[in-house]
Amino acid sequence: MIKKLSWEYKTLIIVIFLIVFISLISLAKEEREIQKINPLDTNLNKNSQFQEQGNVSVSIKFLSEKSSQDTLFFSVSLDTHSVDLDQFNFGKNVLLEYQNSSGKPRDITLYGGGHHRQAELSFPQVPPPYKIIIKDLAGITRREFEF
User: Fold this and answer.
1) pLDDT of residue 82
2) What is the domain count for the chain?
3) In this predicted structure, what is the pLDDT of residue 30?
4) Does 43 fall in a domain?
5) Which terminus, N or C, of the chain has the lesser number of Cβ atoms within 10 Å?
6) Which parts pass through the membrane (predicted)?
7) Around 23, how many Cα atoms within 13 Å sit in the side-chain half-sphere?
8) Are the C-beta atoms of residues 58 and 48 closer than 8 Å to each other?
9) Alpha-carbon distance 46 to 48, whole Å?
10) Containing domain of residue 6, as a range?
11) Does 130 map to a domain?
C-alpha cells in the first residue's frame, strides 16, 4: 500500500526538480554562448586562425582595417613555454603563397621576444584564396593558414 506524501515532501520534490531543470537550461545556454564567441574557431571567424604544433601556438589575423587595394596586412603571434622564439626569422620563414608561387613580406614590424613574439607583416595584394605559410618553426617544416 502506498502511503500519502505530506505536503512538505511534495514541495521539496518540486523545488529540487525546478533547481535541476533551471541548472540544465543555464548550462546549455552558457555552452552555446561559448561556442558563438570563440575567436579561435576558424569556422566562425575567417579573419583569424590558430594552430598549435611542436609546443608553439601560432595565431594569424588578417588586418582588414589596415589592408588596402595594394597591400594585405597580417598579425602573426607565436607563443610557447618551452622554445626560444628569438631565432625565428619572420622575413625568411613567413610567406604568402598564391597560385603556386610564394613571396616574402614587404614590411615587418616586430614585437616581444623570448617565448612570446608577434609581427605585423605586409604583402602585395592578391585575391583569395591564398595561404600564409610558416616554415621551420619548432621542428614543424610547414604550417598552412588558408584565407
Assistant:
1) 87
2) 2
3) 58
4) no
5) N
6) 12-28
7) 6
8) no
9) 6
10) 1-37
11) yes
